Structure formats: structure tokens, C-alpha cells
Endonuclease/exonuclease/phosphatase domain-containing protein
Amino acid sequence: MNQSFIMSWNEMGLNKQEKKAAVRRIISKSGARICFLQETKLCSVDIRTIRQISGHTSNMKWIYSPSTGSAGGLISLWDPMVFDCNIHIVNDSYICLIGNMNYKEFSSVCVLVNVYAPNGPSERKAVFTTYRRN
């Protein structure tokens, strides 16, 4: 598998151990240093869950937005050696990370956004209307 720097994946549920193991394998094989997971369907996330899915030791930093019932849920993971998060904004439908990216010869302030929007037209419109207000 080609090496990736950023990975974004709609998992459609991380409640089963097999799914966590599959995510761990993909993150590990991809070599991604920043990972965005959508539709985790997890109402809470702790360090144990992160270790089960990250494929890395405990040095990955992370933040999550809980699911609402059986819908949504976001996890953003990053390697602090390549991204230093200074500000984070968490919402039901997105996680925004603002910080300094330092990778090889690239160094700059970056804004990274992990987004989950429902598929229904009216629900999706409501989410994007919220983005415009923020």
C-alpha cells in the first residue's frame, strides 16, 4: 500500500472489535500521520479505544465528537511530531484543528477539518448552514 500522510475514512461503526482491528491495519499499512474517522457511532472514546484503532503507541494525540444515538461520531488522530494542535473546535458534525504542521521541509500554520454530514438533503443543508454561521 502507498504511504499516505492524511487518511479520511467513513467507518460506519466502530463498535465491534473486528472493525477496530481493520482500521488499525489500514492506518498501520498506510503510514498516515493524521487520521480522520467519520461515522464511528461511538458515544464515548477513551485511550483504550484509541490504542485499539490507531496502530500506534500512545503518542498519537486525539479528540472526538460523540455520536448522536446511532448516527455520526468523529475521531481525529494526529502525530504530534508532524502536527502541533493549538486550537480545536468540536461540533456534532465536525472537528476543526488549528495548529502548526511540520513535515519534512514543509512548515506552516494549518487548519484541518474532519467533517461528517448526513445524506438526507434537508439534514445536509442544516449542517452546511451551521458552517456558514461559524
